[in-house]
Amino acid sequence: MTNSSLPEIAHYIDGEIVSGSSDRTQDVFNPATGGVEKQVRLAAAADVEAAVASARAAWPEWSKMPPLRRARILDRFKFIIQERADQLAEAISSEHGKTHDDALGEVTRGLEVVEFAVGAPHLLKGEYTESVGTGVDSFSTRQSLGVVAGITPFNFPCMVPMWMFPVALACGNTFILKPSERDPSASLLMAEWLSEAGVPKGVFNVVQGDKLAVDTLLEHPDVKAISFVGSTPIAKYIHTTGTANGKRVQALGGAKNHMIIMPDADLDMAANALMGAAFGSAGERCMAISVAVPVTDAVADALVEKLVPKIEALKIGPAADRSSEMGPLVTRQHLDKVRGYIDSGEAAGAKLVVDGRSFKQDRQGYENGYYVGGSLFDHVTPDMEIYRDEIFGPVLSMVRRESYQDAVDLIHSHSYANGTAVFTRDGDVARAFAQDIEVGMVGINVPIPVPMAFHSFGGWKDSLFGDHHMHGMEGIRFYTRLKTTTTRWPSGQRENPQFVMPTLG
Ligand code: NAD
Asked: For ligand 1, what atom is nearest to the CA of residue 231?
């Protein structure tokens, strides 16, 4: 229920911020302090229906607007965000907890998709063949789907929505965003700035909410496609329910990303890469490296020696301190879950080399924030819960292997297949890895191989359900459907009725 003394984060429907018809709300915390600072509205079905109706009404005009005009509006949006990146980053950090620079990085990676989408007119050009038959020409065009929806996770409240809506809008669809209820403010800033850039009312809507809002979108006949990013159980549910309701669905799930370190690798480079990839954003990234796989015990021992002082020296603090390298976790519940995994790894017999549970934040005002230190487990085995599950926290597990092939087999035995990396100087190994590894995004001496906006983002196996990855050409294909038109201008030719299949003859 509403606590009227706190600021409210509401919906954005039909070009306006509205509280909607439900009085259900949820507290929004500042993870750095542990305090409740805002409340977010949780939509009723009627609120989702109002957003869909608005988006449905806006679609005919938006879809027929010349693509270059849509692109120019997105271009203005890009400049607005660039000018106000600090404001957006501050909103993200205050609800997610990530450091200011990390939040700015997220904004930049999101903006790259806007830049890509501004070039969409070129990608929507279609194909034309003159004379597929005598006096007969044929052309194919990519047309928008209609109303499409995006359901997004807490860990990138700006970038993940931007994987979706710039491409969807550039292709002529209208959009409904259902952001995470844990850090909803970024969605409203983006909605207002899109409007300021010239996006007409109804073209971009935001409904805040939980399962009720998601289910209403999944079942609504006017929603033609769903893009989802979040945990694997929910991704599976979204894919099954959305496709059963006749929708196009791309549902990206969780991850457990491995990095192989070969004996010939530059170990200082590998150790630094592991630090950023495992502990950046407190490990709350779907492309975080959570498993280091050193090949041979000698490499493992050397890596542990290099990593321990670095992990112990991590600067852990609030985003307000611009020198912080790692912020708090997103919620108290998630903090308890991550600490529980550290307990579980210890109980299962893994060697806890650095114990993040011992970290205490004693800066005044931040004592109740959701902080945990970086942890390193050595001698982790594949049967352990800390290896099998996605922890989504600053916990790095080391699984020692004796050969390259053993390391590859380990990766292949895991159910997730989002990202992976190998650190080596051996071209043969690098090429074999790139070609053979069964994972969607691969890095060679690159720990977090997040594709640029003009390529596409997505994993394999339990990390993605559906046929399309996000943004790049895959995004254009996902948000459009192909139409092929065949034309004849007979200039006086007449034909008798034909009852056989027409052929060129
Ligand atoms: P989550 O699955 O809990 O929530 C994602 C979205 O689904 C939210 O909008 C939430 O409101 C909604 N949701 C939650 N429970 C639901 C239910 N029962 N029915 C319908 N909708 C529901 O994920 P999260 O905790 O916000 O985000 C972290 C997860 O996202 C991690 O597993 C991470 O790996 C994953 N992720 C994946 C990628 C990727 O590209 N593969 C990127 C970012 C995050």
From this structure: 32
Q: What is the CATH number of the domain that holds 98?
A: 3.40.605.10
Are both 107 and 147 inside the same structural domain?
yes
In a domain, 325, yes or no: yes
N-term to C-term CA, the chain: 72
With a cut of 80, say whether residue 300 has pLDDT above it: yes
pLDDT digits (tens, 9 = 90+) for 217-244: 999 999 999 999 999 999 999 999 999 9
115-131 as b/e: b if 16+ CB within 10 A: ebbbebeebbeeeeeee
In a domain, residue 349? The reply is yes
* Count of structural domains, the chain: 2
Both structure tokens of 199: 């996006």
Q: Same domain, yes or no, for 235 and 350?
A: no
What pLDDT score does 502 carry? 81
pLDDT single digits (tens) 84-115: 999 999 999 999 999 999 999 999 999 999 99
Ligand 1: does its nearest atom lie under 6 Å from the Cβ of 230? yes
Q: Which of 362, 350, 469 is nearest to 399 (CA)?
A: 350
Which residues does the annotation mark as catalytic? 286
**262 and 237 co-located in one domain:** no
Cβ of 211 less than 6 Å from ligand 1:
yes
Which atom of ligand 1 has the smallest separation from the CA of 218? Answer: 20
pLDDT in tens, 260-279: 999 999 999 999 999 999 99
Q: Are residues 240 and 269 in the same domain?
A: no
Ligand 1 centroid to Cα of residue 287, in Å, is: 14
What distance lies between CA 238 and its chain's CA centroid? 15
Q: State the closest ligand 1 atom to the C-alpha of 418, by its place in the atom list counted from 1.
A: 41
Per-residue pLDDT tens over the stretch 325-378: 999 999 999 999 999 999 999 999 999 999 999 999 999 999 999 999 999 999
- In a domain, residue 99? The reply is yes
- The whole domain housing 357 covers 257-444
